[in-house]
Amino acid sequence: MKKLFSVLKYAKNYKGYLVANVFFNILFAIFSAVSLTLAMPFLKLLFEDTNLIETGLILLKGKPKFELSSEYIKDISNYYLMGLVVTQGGKLKALVIICIAVFVMTFLKNLFRYLAMFFIAPIRNGVVRDLRNKMYKKAMDLPLSYYSEEKKGDLMSRMSSDVQEIEWSIMQTLEMIFREPLTIIISFSLMLLVSTKLTIYILLLLPIAAIFIALLGRSLKSASRKSKETLGGLISVIEETLGSLKVIKAFSAMGPMQKKFESINQTYYKQSVNVYRKTDLSSPLTEVVVTGILMFILFIGGSMVFNGELTGPLFLMYFILASQLIPPIKQLTTSYSNIQKGVASEERIDKILLADDVIVDKPNAKTISEFTKEIEYKNLWFAYHKGDDGYVLRDINLKIEKGKTIALVGQSGSGKTTLADMLPRFYESDKGALLIDGTDIKELSTESVRNQIGVVTQESVLFNDTVKNNIIFGMQNVTNAAVIEAAKIANAHEFIIQLPNGYDTIIGDRGGKLSGGQRQRLSIARAILKNPAILILDEATSALDTESEKLVQEALTNLMKNRTSVVIAHRLSTIANADEIIVMHQGEIIERGNHTQLLALNGTYKKLCDMQSFK
After folding, report:
1. Which CATH number does the domain housing residue 185 bear?
2. 503 vs 547 pLDDT, higher one
3. Are 569 and 575 in contact (CB under 8 A)?
4. Number of domains in the chain
5. What is the DSSP letter of 532?
6. How far apart are CA 608 and CA 596, in angstroms?
7. Quick check: helix, strand or coil at residue 569?
8. Are strands 393-401 and 405-410 parallel, antiparallel or unpaired?
9. How many Å apart are CA 456 and CA 527, to the nearest integer?
């Protein structure tokens, strides 16, 4: 039961709207039930022949004294009805008054229903907005290692369809908790007043419907979770396909990719059909069960009328009240089914929101405003999976003095990029420490550390925006002159001014309208504009042609002036002038020194150079 209503926790910031919704739902339930009680005088007026003498006697007796019984309902109905007949001068005018009363009651009932929905709209949409904001922020706060285990498509599915499911579940939960149960309780209370015997029969038989609802809901929750997981896989395939079309076409892999997509899509189709069928089954199944119960009550109640235990109009009013139980009970079953789907979505969302491997600053984290001395890796160990013996970095000891250029080389998978990524705190060490100017990076605020660092990667990360906005990305109050100056230093200004709209040209998804060299020079211009004290270059020229590499290398040289640089390179020709070259293998430093010293060792570095015909 706790899980069932847990989706309401997302609505806690909307208490005012929530109270208003509950208030108007209560009024709706009351007026719904009260409007049905007008059936009693209406039926008496139509079908019972009452003369003036009888009317006078009823009025002379005075207003009946309140008591919980069907007799009281009959007497109070007679009292007011006869008074209406006398004051209005006949049955026809009394009938007009009753019809107007029914209309007014119906109008008020629907007004309160609308007002309840009016106040739930901000809750539904506000919760979706807040959840998406919260998930987006958490997605950015999570370390990169988290995404090595998760599919991007599945994460996108959780942030879209699962969040939308929560919205629907909140509305259903509010109705399930307040409006429908209240409608049922009020109707049952009136039914108890009319006939305790008949109501006890209903109470004994309704658990049958409840058993069906519970079994169907449990099955639906499981089916819904599987369906959403498959949808996540489907979105992942779409995302991979759109990002890899060139490779797919080049290897004529359209057929296999189509088959893969169709296979997952077919599975999702089957699971979705199963979910819809189970959802759609709840309402008619409940109606059939409840109608069966009502027919049994009709038989018992009819027998009581024949035996004189109930009057005809009183039993008809009772049956009308009982029949009105079908819509709220059907709504309860539908709500329960949708809530089960919402609970399945909530569990998937919580996998992101409750992920505990977030890199969080300490409460009183220090701020580094300037890098002045050195970076030191001290006995540092790191594994992507906590508690795993498969360490990616093993007992790293390395000092990088301010203004020096350190190159990291080695085979793929040797830990070069991971070692560099520890510096902007993309990952946190399992053992040992990483110090900046003698202070453990864990004692410093992450934002202040990253403000000291600029990164240029092998794959240029650009956005579907203007050239200017890509260069000033993440920076505020930047002048056009500063942007142009950064572009000139990065050898980018010349090609930028030749674009259709110059610096205001939209460069397409991931900079797709530009060449590889142009994209890389924009990335370098961005780093130059940031003016970082520490620079990380992760194979920044390895994906370029010779001409582009020359331009980019020149831009990198400009960028590296007077900066502390960590350079990751496969092309050893680009790091020959580094102050120190670190050779890595399986997460360990196996050789270190400058280019000449390492060649003299005749070890791994020498072999790497020979393989590249480097001299």
Report:
1. 1.20.1560.10
2. 503
3. yes
4. 1
5. -
6. 14
7. coil
8. unpaired
9. 7
